[in-house]
Design goal:
Largest sheet: 24 strands, mixed
Number of strands: 30
Protein name: Rhamnogalacturonase A/B/Epimerase-like pectate lyase domain-containing protein
Family: Belongs to the glycosyl hydrolase 28 family.
Helix content: 10-25%
Number of helices: 5
Bound molecules: 2-acetamido-2-deoxy-beta-D-glucopyranose
Distance between the termini: 59 Å
CATH class of the largest domain: Mainly Beta
GO molecular function: polygalacturonase activity
InterPro entries: GH28_Enzymes, Glyco_hydro_28, PbH1, Pectin_lyas_fold, Pectin_lyase_fold/virulence, RHGA/B-epi-like_pectate_lyase
CATH superfamily of the largest domain: Single-stranded right-handed beta-helix, Pectin lyase-like
Pfam families: Glyco_hydro_28, Pect-lyase_RHGA_epim
CATH topology of the largest domain: Pectate Lyase C-like
Shape: elongated
Length: about 475
Amino acid sequence: MLHQQRLELKRWVPTLLSNHKTLFAVLWIVGFVSVFVWQRNIIEGLLIFRRSSALPMPRLRPVAFNITDFGAVGDGATDNTAAFERAVSAVSKFRSRGGAQLNVPAGNWLTAPFNLTSHMTLFLAKDAVILGIDDEKYWPLMPPLPSYGYGREHPGPRFGSLIHGQNLKDVVITGHNGTIDGQGQTWWRKYRQKLLNNTRGPLVQIMWSRDIVITNITLRNSPFWTLHPYDCKNVTIQNVTILAPIYEAPNTDGIDPDSCEDMVIEDCYISVGDDGIAIKSGWDQYGIAYGRPSVNILIRNLVVRSMVSAGVSIGSEMSGGISNITVENIVVWNSRRAVRIKTAPGRGGYVRKITYRNLTFDGVRVGIVIKTDYNEHPDEGYDPKSVPILEDISFTSVHGQGVRVPVRIHGSEEIPVRNVTFHDMSVGITYKKKHIFQCAFVQGRVIGTIYPAPCENLDLYDEQGRLIRRSASQNMTDIDYDL
Ligand SMILES: *[C@@H]1O[C@H](CO)[C@@H](O)[C@H](O)[C@H]1NC(C)=O
Ligand SMILES: *[C@@H]1O[C@H](CO)[C@@H](O)[C@H](O)[C@H]1NC(C)=O
Ligand SMILES: *[C@@H]1O[C@H](CO)[C@@H](O)[C@H](O)[C@H]1NC(C)=O
Ligand SMILES: *[C@@H]1O[C@H](CO)[C@@H](O)[C@H](O)[C@H]1NC(C)=O
Ligand SMILES: *[C@@H]1O[C@H](CO)[C@@H](O)[C@H](O)[C@H]1NC(C)=O
Ligand SMILES: *[C@@H]1O[C@H](CO)[C@@H](O)[C@H](O)[C@H]1NC(C)=O
Ligand SMILES: *[C@@H]1O[C@H](CO)[C@@H](O)[C@H](O)[C@H]1NC(C)=O
Ligand SMILES: *[C@@H]1O[C@H](CO)[C@@H](O)[C@H](O)[C@H]1NC(C)=O
Ligand SMILES: *[C@@H]1O[C@H](CO)[C@@H](O)[C@H](O)[C@H]1NC(C)=O
Ligand SMILES: *[C@@H]1O[C@H](CO)[C@@H](O)[C@H](O)[C@H]1NC(C)=O
Ligand SMILES: *[C@@H]1O[C@H](CO)[C@@H](O)[C@H](O)[C@H]1NC(C)=O
């Protein structure tokens, strides 16, 4: 195009040269165009340079393999399952020698589910995409999780996960922000049309394992929960982007720590079709029998969006107990709920020692939610008299704007919520109405002044911790779901 412009200029030049002013103007234009072309070429040159010298993949283990060494083709069409299986088998030979790294270069690497091995690093280069085959015939079935006794959506076996691991130690999934893409669209459609007879599989599921690190990658379009560490110890998830459509991507939770101990989730961006994070520990009588809590979990520095459910949830499956959870420096934006604890009679277990600190709500319908009638049960075998205990929950530094109902703590006679603390809260509301700080069967305290004004159920203390007024109506009910 620029070439054509130059030719046209040449045609006009003879007639215009008669005039000094136009000559000056023409020279000025020619000068300007040349500088523009020169700059553009420099920028293009830089881009070509960047493309040709892709970021080298760091060597993180004594040995590194390239997935292409095993016959994989990154054309988005070739089935690379056997290549991944051969590669993992090659990596497993080095488990006693510091393990090995499997590099996945830029490309679209289509595969059915495969298993990881211990002492393995899976490294996804920039623009590397592992694509899950979206035909359930390629997805192996597995027995139900013992603490769920049930597939979750259907009784009986469930689909395994695209990337799976059991009884592993020392596994790293990392990269230069490469992607694992579950191609969930087909699964979500089939689920909605009731064409599936088994529970959909997660994108990444690591079970009964320890020393797991997942960083610097993107996970997207999971068929079901995205990242599911199950009964694991010492798990770090850092700097991970998790994406799924915010509507009509059913059950695409971001990260679901389930009966896990010693876990950190930090510096992540999550925008999905269900809970951003949901800490769990098994379901009703199966979870009680399995009896493995989620404990010592630190969640910080996240930006989360959940239009269907909540930014950070605890439950509703929590029958093995959940305790010592810290949730801090979290922004939840354009979401239905910000943080939620959900449970029901029949769950048993407990949720205690939960600390929320420095939460920012930006355009959420309900900020803080505790719900005790989330009545979803695996089968008729649950014991409704098995009630969970909810206690020692604190909220410090909660701010934000554009919130309709800042607080809704809906305890009940059987499941009262005990020892809740609020300190330093100011949330801008969209509704200048009463009943926006809703409570029922909740005992606890407010330290200092908070906005909006708390419900009558809570005791009031001053900033120095001196009692100002003890509530006489902890069990008063002021819940309004119509707001
Ligand atoms: C992997 O192999 C492909 C194809 O042979 C090559 O283009 C790429 O540079 C290799 N990557 C690494 C990290 O060895
Ligand atoms: C992965 O490992 C699990 C547990 O050992 C096994 O049941 C399953 O068949 C394996 N899946 C594949 C695809 O090899
Ligand atoms: C997060 O990952 C991106 C892409 O891989 C990288 O550029 C960035 O430095 C990482 N940040 C941290 C804090 O690890
Ligand atoms: C990683 O990739 C995702 C998806 O393409 C993008 O949204 C995100 O900003 C990237 N992260 C970094 C740190 O570059
Ligand atoms: C699901 O089960 C029904 C009834 O047994 C059967 O007709 C149908 O073919 C099954 N669908 C799939 C996808 O397996
Ligand atoms: C936790 O896992 C990391 C990564 O494998 C490891 O470096 C660390 O030593 C482990 N911590 C404990 C206490 O085992
Ligand atoms: C994530 O990426 C950053 C920047 O490249 C790097 O410093 C960090 O070590 C990476 N994290 C891991 C665990 O590889
Ligand atoms: C609670 O969890 C934190 C991690 O968030 C951990 O550092 C601390 O030791 C745990 N407390 C107890 C009593 O185990
Ligand atoms: C509170 O969290 C925000 C991000 O959500 C962060 O920028 C800020 O530094 C945090 N404040 C404190 C005191 O940690
Ligand atoms: C109430 O919870 C706080 C933590 O939020 C804890 O420090 C305190 O000990 C608890 N009080 C009682 C009486 O258990
Ligand atoms: C509130 O209800 C709980 C049981 O749900 C009961 O233990 C407690 O005594 C009641 N408190 C008051 C002030 O009535």
